[in-house]
Amino acid sequence: MKRTNDRGFPDRNAIVAFIKANPGKVGTREIAREFGLKNADRAELRRMLRELADDGVIKKKRHKVSEPDALPPTLLADITGRDSDGELIASPAEWDEVESGEPPKILIEMPRRAKPGTAAGVGDRALLRVDRAGDDEGPAYRGRIIKIIDKAKSRILGVFRALPEGGGRLVPVDKKFADRELNIARTDTGGAQDGDLVSVDIVRTRGFGLASGRVKEKLGSVKSEKAISLIAIYAHDIPLQFSSAAMRDAEAAEPANLKGREDWRDVPLVTIDPPDAKDHDDAVHAQADDDPNNKGGFIVNVAIADVSFYVRPGTALDRDALDRGNSVYFPDRVVPMLPERISNNLCSLVPGEPRGALAVRMVLGPDGRKRSHSFHRILMRSAAKLHYAQAQAAIDGRPDDTTGPLLDPILRPLYAAYACAKRARDERDPLNLDLPERKILLKGDGTVDRVVVPERLDAHKLIEEFMILANVAAAEMLEKKSLPLIYRVHDEPTLEKVHALAEFLETLDVSFAKSGALRPTTFNRVLAQLEGHDYYPLVSEVVLRAQAQAEYSAENYGHFGLNLRRYAHFTSPIRRYADLVVHRALVRALGLGEGALPDSETPESLGEVAAHISLTERRAMKAERETVDRLIAHHLADRIGASFQGRVSGVTRAGLFVKLSETGADGLIPIRSLGTEYFNYDESRHALVGTRSGTMYQLGDIVDVRLVEAAPIAGALRFELLSSESESSPRDRRPLRPQRKSSKAHPGRSPEKKRKPEKQKSGKGTKAKGKNKGKGKKGKAW
């Protein structure tokens, strides 16, 4: 095969062959190294890779390329169960369901005589050699075990269900092992009652039939919401207790003093946080710049808790913090990254108490751009502890006893500096996806009181913008000093997602430029075009799903969403390990004293730390999300049969996912309950479309549903459809005209016309097997 053209540049076939031969490992750097390309050839190589991706020959994700829609030949997988023939079934250990949908199933092929180290069972984690299945029956992949990486846990978490004859069964809380019940003998219940959340040791396993277990620990009844967050904590192996050595280090720590610090105790820094915040790790202050060369400019000071002074590299506190990676926030508790004596006491910037901090002083020009910055290790004393609504009320003319004296000397200069900084932010034009965030409020007994959407105030935006400026300053300083650091990076959307978004917008007659450099402005134009239309929430959701996931990396490839070339987390070292690393690097770079980043830290070693804390961040997000789902499912369990309004939040071949307007809870309308006709899944439109009537149910549709089933342990809800805007409005697509939300009709629809069947892509439809539209069968549908 010819590997290069006449100019010595590799041809398409050679590049594709190299990618296929090195699955999961190939990026621009590896291809350039393989074919001896110089820096001048990189642009041509990137262009060729884009063409290959456009043609569907390869799949591009961040800086890696692979064969399209294929698992790598070797991967780490979790063995999750058995099929009807008793054969083991596995799924990839790392899989982004939001980005890639349901993980593919892998049928494990076991040899007649297994080699040592390859005898597997349900719950094991194994390294597999994977091939595509040769037929359409069963799982899409076949796998052979290379090595067992981790045997099934000998202790699992579940709900104890008592049996009339004594003893009971354990129902695991992990959805992956929902069908893997354990038998609990009468003598092994440990006093557990029906409905108790328990930790169980596996004492005997079998190839077939139920394994046996012994209750090791009772964690409380699942009938109490206070136990629900424990499910996520145990299910995701989130460390709950600190080591005794770490606790000794925390208790022995002494308050910071002026030694090696600048005295900023007279600077009136204030903290502005949520009203229920337990730790306060950032404080702000601003004043007009009196430099005649910077008329209209401001000086902004951001002080951050000096965690690096207390948590030194290599100590027990450091090891525990790295293991956790970040704090995890549940509605009823916080699992902190650091012991409370550090996070809520010595490092918390409480009013009136001297506290050590690492501060950055930034000079903003009248255009809002940062002209210069400097870092200082200081001793400060917070002038006040405010919450967002309190600060905003004072600016809006409703000061209280606390904010009244602060209004002119502190708050007005802060807001004036923010107005200045906002000019530069607006010019930078970061991705403008201001989606509402719901918050669960609990009663005193731990049960759900209500779900609210806190109003987003200028006070929130002020703190957010000052923190972004401080994070940029930290990254710039460390790059200037040539020190390794951990960046916060956010890649641009993949070509596949951009094309999918463009195809979707075409169904709404909205243009989207797919060529040229991709910038947040590209998406902002689309959102601005649709602002005020009924389709705006739908398009916002699809634009969000097109974005990549932010992560930590020792290699900088910028932050696409914020439209920044360099960005590093610096402002929350109490709750994020990445920020602690950046603090240590600044201490080392500027010679600020103790707690510096060790000389032994390299980009390679920090790369490993970045990969680990990216995983712990995703673990925390998943645990928090699952806990909210379980809490709301528990809250709604006694409202079976009630009707709710919601919006279609997801469309799959299995049915429609609906997010309720009242609580933000997500549930499934199974496709079998939609009607008697077949429904095609139209991926480009994010819709299910009836092949006979043309009825279309689409992402973003407003629907009325009835709650049919609630499963609190799984955090799952099942609905049946009562009515939909799809049924009252046909889907005639026309160019969107300016139209405000007061109009009842969706843009592009024509209510006076009869519904026309939608043109469908080729492909198999899915039969909706319910007897009548809106009536579903009882039983699990997930």
Brief sketch in words of this structure:
This protein has 782 residues and is of the alpha+beta class. The protein is 26% helix and 26% strand. It is found in: Cytoplasm.
Protein model, in words:
It is globular and about 80 Å long. With 782 residues, the chain is an alpha+beta fold. The protein is built from 17 helices and 35 strands. The C terminus is likely disordered. The chain folds into five domains: 55 residues, Arc Repressor Mutant, subunit A, CATH 1.10.10; 76 residues, Nucleic acid-binding proteins (OB fold (Dihydrolipoamide Acetyltransferase, E2P), Beta Barrel); 69 residues, OB fold (Dihydrolipoamide Acetyltransferase, E2P), CATH 2.40.50.700; 306 residues, no CATH class; 88 residues, Beta Barrel (OB fold (Dihydrolipoamide Acetyltransferase, E2P)), CATH 2.40.50.140.
> How many helical elements?
17
Which structural class fits the helix and strand makeup?
alpha+beta
Give the proportion of residues in helices.
Answer: 25-40%
The proportion of strand residues reads: 25-35%
| pLDDT averaged over residues | 83
Strand order of the largest sheet: 4-5-6-8-7
Compute the number of structural domains.
5
Q: Which of globular, elongated, flat, extended, rod-shaped describes the shape?
A: globular
Runs in which pLDDT lies below 50 for 5 or more consecutive residues are: 728-782
DSSP, total strands = 35
| Rg (C-alpha, Å) | 28 Å
> What oligomeric state is this?
single chain
The largest pleated sheet is described as: 5 strands, mixed, barrel
Gap between N and C termini? 49 Å
